[in-house]
Amino acid sequence: TTQGEGLLSVPATNASRKLPQTIIMGVRKGGTRALLEMLNLHPHITVAKTEMHFFDWDENYQQGLGWYRQQMPLSLPDQITVEKTPGYFTSARAPERIQAMNSSLRLLLIVRDPAERVISDYTQVLHNRRQQNKSFQPVEQILIRDGEVNTNYKAIQRSLYHLHMANWLQRFPLGQIHIVDGDLLIRDPLPELRRAERFLHLPPRIQASNFYFNHTKGFFCLRAEGHERCLDDSKGRRHPSVSARALSQLCTYFEGHNDSFFKMVGRSFSWCR
Ligand code: A3P
């Protein structure tokens, strides 16, 4: 007998639904979908296709771990299950809830230049509001209010990585959290995936031949078993232009926050350069 979910050749007796051993917890617009899809190229990885929002949405969490496990894909005994929900990173409850499920779980966090991330976040919300025929404000009016960086803007708060990271480090040792550089994943995915494989104790199976640069999309796309595909149109959107002045203001604002994050994780990134 066989079962669905893309595992058509898997005997039903061997396959089971497991709680994730790894979670991509954020950051929103950091490249979480690209990371998940790229990890899925690994034969020892199986992924939950949609964002579960189990640990950050109370109505889901109340369904219990049995429900959560049922949402997971079938996996073989030598496969690990990965789930991604970028909302976990900024959720106050997610760290303790994930720790309660599995205190030795390995967490993946993909980060990206915080200023770029804000604009990407804005672009996504703008797209959604346009689709719903809702009004929207031009990007600079949201970013800068009365000449100052608008610190009330949610997207800016989500880019204060150290504030959110502090909550995770209260529950998980730094060694259990692997940080993927989202800017590098865009430019050259393989080395970042190698590092992720090592962190997950998986043999290196993702290959350079799994990627090709698609000039139309302007991003790397995936190739597996002779089949080529790019991430969908919602990934790699064109951003609205932001003046050099506003961008520089944003970067100055983030500088101190970024330094706090670098100290916290013992690593620095070349953001805002
Ligand atoms: P933009 O659409 O702003 O460019 P997430 O999946 O967390 O929402 O992140 C979306 C971001 O992933 C995109 O933001 C894009 O920059 C980035 N990304 C990284 N690798 C990509 C790839 N190979 N194809 C498309 N987008 C990719």
Walk me through this protein's architecture.
- Keywords: Disulfide bond, Glycoprotein, Golgi apparatus, Signal, Transferase.
- Disulfide bonds join 221-230.
- Its main location: Golgi.
- It is a single chain.
- It is built from eleven helices and twelve strands.
- It is an alpha/beta fold.
- The strands form four sheets. It has a five-stranded parallel sheet with strand order 3-5-2-6-9.
- A hairpin with a 2-residue loop joins strand 7 (144-145) and strand 8 (148-149).
- The model has no long low-confidence stretch (mean pLDDT 95).
- The structure holds adenosine-3'-5'-diphosphate.
CA distance, first residue to last residue? 56 Å
Strand order of the largest sheet: 3-5-2-6-9
Task: Compute the number of strand runs.
Answer: 12
Instruction: Tell me, briefly, the overall form.
Output: globular
- Mean pLDDT, nearest integer? 95
Structural class: alpha/beta
Residue share in helix: 25-40%
Small-molecule binders here are: adenosine-3'-5'-diphosphate
Number of contiguous helices: 11
Q: Report the major sheet.
A: 5 strands, parallel
Flag low-confidence runs: none
Q: Tell me the series of helices and strands, N- to C-terminal.
A: EEHEHHEEHEHHEEHHEHHEEEH
**Beta content:** 15-25%
Radius of gyration: 19 Å
